[in-house]
């Protein structure tokens, strides 16, 4: 029996998105369920053929299987690369017979061509939660583990503007070699709630945000849409949202939180952004 649950979502443009009500926005862009015990969840987005999901092994190892209707390949990473950040308890990722210990908030990159990938938890009572992002790849780069200490860290914002945060660039070309996938983790300080200000777009690539460490009873309002016609989606802990190339991607929580950003597209220039002044957002 397959352990993989998946769905496919087609890309829509800004004009079509204007016609969507709240339910329509959530159906097209929100990924409500990332983790289920002993399952792998994936959403396949037709924006840059990006895949986002999660693996939560509890009772035993679970295998990264190919998804025949979507990939038409003998194994998942035949023509793809995979980024992993663990947001749960410690676990193992076995890649073609080599095991990598991945602790809480540690990352692993797996390059194109890896055939046998298994996920397992060290303690079923505190299972690993492997957040997964995958993109098409044209070259095979080595599998590599990246800890928070090895990340390229950037301090931004201030408590006075409610956006004091640390950006941990983990699976980024400044740290490791990838084809197009880039991932990192932004941690907001207590008292800060805003992320990604000033807001921006980058028509050359898309992005996915995964929000976690949202305290019980709190939420995050994620903002999307063109800079002159923004919309919002209310999100709960351990949910993700797809950001099209034409959309801003920013949010404000009712408490501080952490989020993982992943992106892919035309280039690997992290600072390639078309910024919008805060006072010009509509």
Radius of gyration computed on alpha carbons? 18 Å
Helix-strand topology string: EHHEEEEHEEEEEEEEEEEEEEEEEEE
Helix content: under 10%
Distance between the amino and carboxyl termini: 49 Å
Strand-pairing-aware structural class:
mainly beta
Total domain count: 1
Structure in words:
The protein has 282 residues and is mainly beta. The radius of gyration is 18 Å and the shape is globular. The protein has three helices and 24 strands. The strands form five sheets. It has a seven-stranded mixed sheet, with no helix packed on it. It has a single domain (4-280), classed as Jelly Rolls. Strand 13 and strand 14 form a beta hairpin.
Name a few traits of the molecule.
about 280 residues, mainly beta, Jelly Rolls, 7-stranded mixed beta sheet, 7-stranded antiparallel beta sheet, about 40% strand, zinc ion binding, isomerase, RmlC_Cupin_sf, KduI, KduI/IolB_isomerase
Topology summary:
Elements: E1 4-9, H1 14-17, H2 22-29, E2 30-31, E3 40-45, E4 50-55, E5 62-63, H3 68-71, E6 80-86, E7 91-95, E8 98-102, E9 107-110, E10 117-121, E11 130-136, E12 144-146, E13 152-156, E14 165-171, E15 182-188, E16 194-195, E17 200-201, E18 205-212, E19 220-224, E20 231-235, E21 239-243, E22 250-253, E23 258-265, E24 274-275
Parallel strand pairs: 1-3
Antiparallel strand pairs: 2-21, 3-4, 4-11, 5-10, 6-9, 6-11, 7-8, 7-10, 9-12, 13-14, 14-15, 15-23, 16-22, 17-24, 18-21, 18-23, 19-20, 19-22
């Amino acid at each position: 029996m397959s352990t993989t649950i998946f769905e496919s979502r087609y890309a829509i443009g800004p004009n079509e998105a204007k016609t969507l009500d709240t339910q329509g926005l959530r159906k097209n862009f929100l990924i409500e369920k990332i983790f289920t015990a002993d399952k792998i969840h994936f959403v396949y987005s037709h924006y840059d053929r990006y895949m986002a999901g999660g693996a939560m092994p509890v009772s035993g190892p679970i295998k990264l299987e190919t998804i025949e209707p979507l990939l038409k390949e003998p194994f998942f990473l035949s023509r793809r690369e995979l980024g992993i950040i663990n947001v749960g308890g410690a676990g193992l990722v076995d890649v073609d017979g080599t095991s990598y210990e991945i602790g809480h908030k540690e990352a692993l990159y797996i390059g194109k061509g890896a055939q046998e990938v298994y996920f397992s938890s060290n303690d079923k009572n505190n299972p690993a939660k492997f957040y997964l992002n995958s993109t098409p790849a044209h070259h095979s780069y080595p599998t590599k583990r990246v800890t928070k200490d090895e990340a390229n860290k950037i301090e931004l914002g201030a408590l006075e503007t409610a956006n004091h945060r640390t950006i941990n660039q983990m699976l980024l070309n400044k740290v490791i070699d990838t084809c197009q996938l880039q991932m990192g983790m932004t941690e907001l300080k207590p008292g800060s709630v805003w992320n990604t200000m000033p807001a921006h777009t980058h028509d050359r690539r898309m992005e996915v945000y995964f929000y976690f460490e949202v305290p019980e009873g709190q939420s995050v309002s994620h903002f999307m849409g063109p800079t002159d016609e923004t919309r919002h989606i209310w999100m709960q802990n351990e949910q993700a949202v797809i950001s099209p190339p034409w959309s801003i991607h920013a949010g404000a929580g009712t408490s501080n939180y952490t989020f993982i950003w992943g992106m892919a597209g035309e280039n690997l220039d992290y600072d390639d952004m078309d910024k919008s002044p805060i006072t010009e957002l509509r």
